[in-house]
Amino acid sequence: MFKHGLVFLMAAASGVVADVSANPVRSSPTRPATVIDQPKPVPAEKEETKAAAPVARKSAVKYVEIAEVSALHGLELSWPEPQRRLELTNAEHRIEIEVGSRNMRVDGLRVFLGDPARLVQGKAQVSQVDAERLFMGLLAPVAMGKGRELKVVAIDPGHGGPDTGTENKALGLREKIFALDVSLRLKRVLEAKGYRVVMTRETDIDVGKGARAIIANQAGADVFVSVHFNSVLNDTKTRGAEVFTFAPQFQRSTNAWGPGQPDDTEALPAPVNRFDALSVACAHAIHGALLKSLKAEDRGQKVGHWAVLRALNCPGVLIEAGFLSNEAEGKLIATPEYRRQIAEAIAEGLVAYGAKVAGAEKK
């Protein structure tokens, strides 16, 4: 099953598999402006590291042995803590996985599995979806994107117009303003590097979530980057950066694992799910560049059912570059210099991603 799944996935990435964009595009549930198509972010110190009991799992989860994943990618499997914590390593990568948890570390970066790792008869396993989507994107982007050249970047400044996004009213900070500012800075950086950039908005206007994907698709975008800032109601401690991709078919969103949250697993694929592995590769490159540049707290690489990503005909990521609700981080975001750092870090990640999927060494 695992090998057959990989064949299908690689065929989909190369455009051999039939287009699924005819599937109906469903809107994400509506919610207050302070949260973007997802439940409120869980404060870092309260975030679930173990698998919570599902409210209503909609489909059985198929698992594969981690040893098989390790062999496929040329990694050595070892157990620093027998039956509790394992490592996959080679000259390029070091992955740490804790049994019973969705948390893992990939080359030092926090990445969430879609389903918890488990131990069955002494053998560690991950879900087949994670093996085929997450691990392929993290470890074999060349195989998934060989021949793809990154030329056109769609930049989506979150919110706009009457939709202010998150706010810190005490400091007078509004997400829509900073998202647009960072996006325009990113546009200039990428254009200077020779990329063609399409913007979903360049002024303070409201653009429908579905319309943003249409703009990117009509422009023939090779990748879509949605820029946002975060907030948690009545919480001034949580801070840091996190990067999302669209949740794979048959997996719930990261936040849906929180206590009391319903299972939001989707049985039908969204158009953007054709590019799951490439979206993962892009998110990982941007995630690493952001943390390296900003020295921000690592909130992780996650998945969600984001309306702006759903209908894309290219890989897509959604970036939460910091928390306006955290006074110290909010004040940093309010400075032009910090927003310049954010834009340049995103650009650095995109360049690294482009080099990876093209199979070229970063110069």
Automatic annotation (TrEMBL):
Q: Which residues form the signal peptide?
A: 1-18
Keywords in alphabetical order: Hydrolase, Signal
- Decide whether keyword Zinc-finger is in the record: no
What GO biological process terms are annotated to this protein in UniProt?
A: peptidoglycan catabolic process
Substrates-to-products reaction catalysed: Hydrolyzes the link between N-acetylmuramoyl residues and L-amino acid residues in certain cell-wall glycopeptides
Every copy of the MurNAc-LAA domain together lies at 213-351
Single GO molecular function: N-acetylmuramoyl-L-alanine amidase activity
Q: Which GO terms describe its cellular component?
A: outer membrane-bounded periplasmic space
Enzyme Commission number(s)? 3.5.1.28
Q: Name the PANTHER family on file.
A: N-ACETYLMURAMOYL-L-ALANINE AMIDASE (PTHR30404), N-ACETYLMURAMOYL-L-ALANINE AMIDASE AMIC (PTHR30404:SF0)
Protein name from the UniProt record? N-acetylmuramoyl-L-alanine amidase
Please report the organism this UniProt entry assigns to the protein.
Nibricoccus aquaticus
